[in-house]
Every structure is written in structure tokens, then in C-alpha cells.
Write a structure and sequence with these properties.
Largest sheet: 6 strands, parallel
Strand content: 5-15%
Structural class: alpha/beta
Order of helices and strands: HHEHEEEEEEEHEHEHEHEHHEHH
Helix content: 25-40%
Shape: globular
CATH architecture of the largest domain: 3-Layer(aba) Sandwich
Radius of gyration: 24 Å
Number of domains: 2
Number of strands: 13
Strand order of the largest sheet: 2-1-3-4-5-6
Bound molecules: 2-acetamido-2-deoxy-beta-D-glucopyranose
């Protein structure tokens, strides 16, 4: 059997070669086949053949991926990303977005999986918002999720810096803000919605987003959060490690996140204990509101929530819709390009749901 590399090389060299020939047909300059192995005469694009091919078989929500984005935003440039299914047989890895996998797996590849090929299970929702699919057990090679114990973990983690620049808290003209698009009880959002209604009896919450009929453009996201002292970083459900960009936004903007999600201890695995306020720190929403009002009047107390900035840095996440799914895909590219070990995911459902 032909190796992944030579097989891929042959097919892609052929394609690239002919593209080039067509472009220069009028020069009749297509070299004979034997020259194709000569790297020095091969155009730059063909050198990409040394990179693994990653096929998006079930791309998330049909959002069109621009392969150049990995280089532009994450400086990751070591794979060829494609959604062209005719490259299935030569792809080093194939990505499947969990939500799109049919219950009977009828939209999965029907051709046999090449021995070298790794299948990646891509999922970014909490367990509560995950549909169980019996067929996904013992099918994949790598998990790509927000969980720390995934094979490829995708998160906006704080990074350690030796000497941070002097941090100046942005100017604030609001106390508490919340950007929310989803208040659907179906996704488990009813807990946070009830909490919000209760909280807003005691403190004003400036609401933005679709649920408030006050949508923000991607460019308004960070400046809006920055203009508030506190930001409600309420996850739609409580799930281990399910700590999303909702917390990253205020950490980047220079605003104190008030979090609701997994227990405080889980948050503290990802960010300093004094960088956020957890709703569980208070017996009820009224007590939280009183504390926030107290901090609003006491600059010294408020400033304590920014001490971590001397040692850590938050990295902005992308806010445009077309970039919503790109980061995990780029991380997968990085992983496949740098780790070629054999692996399987057994009992995916048990891993995801704990039973
Ligand atoms: C991939 O390989 C299988 C045999 O392993 C073959 O049946 C199938 O037609 C090939 N598909 C493509 C797109 O080349
Ligand atoms: C899989 O399920 C879909 C409906 O969800 C159905 O249309 C299709 O025929 C099924 N395919 C097989 C192979 O059972
Ligand atoms: C989600 O699931 C967890 C555990 O599986 C459970 O404790 C929690 O109440 C569920 N609901 C919400 C809204 O998070
Ligand atoms: C990928 O996982 C499948 C299913 O568990 C397994 O049969 C296959 O050998 C694995 N391949 C690699 C390259 O890890």
C-alpha cells in the first residue's frame, strides 16, 4: 500500500502541476513528468504537500472557513485545510462537528478509513446541550473540545508574563452589563435568566445583544464591555470546564467578570481566584447586588480585582461570526502537524456524559 505521503504527493502534485500548466499553456512550458519530483522547479504552493491535509467533513454550521485565517490570527501555517471531500483518501485527519452527525451516522464517510487517517471529534457545547449519539463510541481518534482532558483542548487561557505593562483600568460609565443573545430555556439558560431577573431588582443591569433587541457589532464588543465595571459572564449551563469566551471578554477588556457556571474551584484552575466574582460566593442575588454596589463606591476594593494583571495576560478572542469556529480548527491543524502518534477514543459518550 502506498504511504499517505507519496499518495498525497502524487495526486496534489498532479493537480498543482496542471493548474500551472494551464496558466502557462501559451508558453508550452509544461515540463515532462520526470521533472515533477525535482523540488527546485516546483512552485511554492506545491511545497505545501509536505503539510498534512485536514479535511472538514462536517464543518460547523456551514460557516465557510478561510484557510488563511489560521496564519493570520494564530500564526499556524502547517497544514492544508480543505472541505473538498474528494481529498478524503489522502487526508491525514478529518474533522466532524458533533452537532451535524446524524443519529444513524448516514452522513459519515462511507469509504474505508485509510490506516494513517485520524478522525477528530469536534464539540464545543456543554454536556447539557449535547445530543447523545450512540454510534460515536469507538469511532474517533482525537477529541477537540474545551475540556482540559481533551486530546486537543481549545480555550482562551491566560498566559504568564514576567513583566506586564502598567495596567490602567479603562474609564467606566456603567456598573453592570450583560450581552446576551439566548434566553431559551431549551438550552438550560433558564437558571441564569431567573438569576438575572432577581439580581436586576437590586441593581441596574445594562443589557445588550439579541435577547435585549440591542445587538452589538463585533467591533463594539470589547469597548462596550470595557465601559462597565462588572460583566455578567453567565454560561447557559453548568458543566465541568465549560468556561467560555464570556469570561475571556471582560478579562481582556479590563472589566470584572461575575461568573455563573461550574463551581468556583473549576474557574480557579483557569484564572486567579481574585480575578472574578462567582455568584456562588453569595447566598442570593440580593447579596451579590449589595456587594457590587459596595465595590462601585470603593475604588481601592475594586482595584484589587486587577492585581493579577501584573503577572498574566488575557488574549482577545475573535468576535466576528465567520471566525466563530476557526480557532479549534487551527488548533487541530497544529496538533496534527506536530503529533503523529496513534490514538483512539474509547467510550466517547461515557467521557462526555460521565455515564
Ligand atoms: C477512496 O478509496 C476507496 C478504496 O479504499 C475507493 O473505493 C474510493 O473510491 C476512493 N475515493 C476517492 C474519492 O478516491
Ligand atoms: C438515517 O436517518 C435519516 C433520517 O434521520 C434517514 O433519512 C436515512 O434514510 C437513514 N439512513 C440509513 C442508512 O438508515
Ligand atoms: C447540566 O448538567 C449538570 C450535570 O450533568 C447538572 O448538574 C445541571 O443542573 C444541568 N443543568 C444546567 C442548567 O446546567
Ligand atoms: C483511529 O481510530 C480507529 C477507531 O478506533 C482505529 O481503528 C484506528 O486504528 C485509529 N487510527 C489511528 C491512526 O490512530
Amino acid at each position: 500500500m502506498m504511504s499517505s505521503y507519496s499518495h498525497k504527493r502524487m495526486i496534489l502534485t498532479f493537480l498543482a502541476f496542471y493548474g500551472l500548466c494551464l496558466a502557462y499553456l501559451w508558453l508550452s512550458s509544461c515540463p515532462p513528468f520526470s521533472d515533477m519530483e525535482d523540488q527546485s522547479s516546483v512552485p511554492v504552493e506545491i511545497k505545501d504537500l509536505d503539510k498534512p491535509i485536514i479535511l472538514l467533513w462536517l464543518p460547523p454550521l456551514d460557516v465557510k472557513i478561510d484557510p488563511a485565517d489560521c496564519k493570520t490570527y494564530f500564526n499556524i501555517n502547517n497544514c492544508v485545510l480543505t472541505d473538498d471531500r474528494s481529498l478524503y483518501n489522502v487526508s491525514d485527519a478529518v474533522i466532524f462537528y458533533h452537532k451535524h452527525i446524524k443519529w444513524n451516522l448516514s452522513n459519515m464517510p462511507s469509504a474505508p478509513r485509510p490506516d494513517f487517517q485520524r478522525w477528530i471529534w469536534y464539540h464545543v457545547e456543554s454536556s447539557n446541550n449535547t445530543v447523545r449519539r450512540v454510534g460515536v463510541d469507538d469511532l474517533f481518534n482525537l477529541t477537540l473540545t474545551y475540556r482540559r482532558d481533551a486530546d486537543i483542548t481549545v480555550r482562551n487561557e491566560l498566559s504568564i508574563v514576567r513583566m506586564a505593562e502598567e495596567f490602567v483600568i479603562p474609564r467606566k460609565d456603567k456598573v453592570v452589563c450583560w450581552i446576551v443573545s439566548n434566553m431559551s430555556p431549551r438550552t438550560g439558560a433558564s437558571t441564569r435568566t431567573a438569576y438575572f431577573h432577581h439580581l436586576s431588582k437590586y441593581i441596574n443591569v445594562e443589557m445588550y445583544g439579541r435577547a435585549a433587541s440591542r445587538p452589538l457589532s463585533p467591533d463594539e464588543y470589547y469597548p462596550t464591555i470595557a465601559s462597565c465595571k462588572f460583566y455578567l459572564a453567565f454560561e447557559n449551563s453548568q458543566s465541568k470546564d465549560y468556561i467560555t469566551e464570556k469570561v475571556n471578554g471582560p478579562l481582556v477588556a479590563g472589566t470584572v467578570p461575575v461568573v455563573m457556571g461550574p463551581p468556583r474551584g473549576n474557574y480557579e484552575q483557569f484564572m486567579p481566584a481574585d480575578s472574578f466574582i462567582h455568584v456562588d460566593d453569595f447566598p442570593d442575588p440580593k447579596a451579590l447586588a449589595e456587594y457590587l454596589l459596595q465595590l462601585d463606591l470603593n475604588d481601592d476594593m475594586y482595584r484589587q480585582y486587577f492585581r493579577w494583571r501584573k503577572y498574566f495576560k488575557a488574549t482577545p478572542h475573535l468576535t466576528k461570526r465567520e471566525h466563530q469556529f476557526i480557532q479549534p480548527i487551527c488548533e487541530a491543524c497544529q496538533h496534527i502537524a506536530t503529533d503523529s502518534t496513534f490514538s483512539v477514543v474509547n467510550n466517547l459518550n461515557e467521557w462526555q456524559f460521565g455515564h
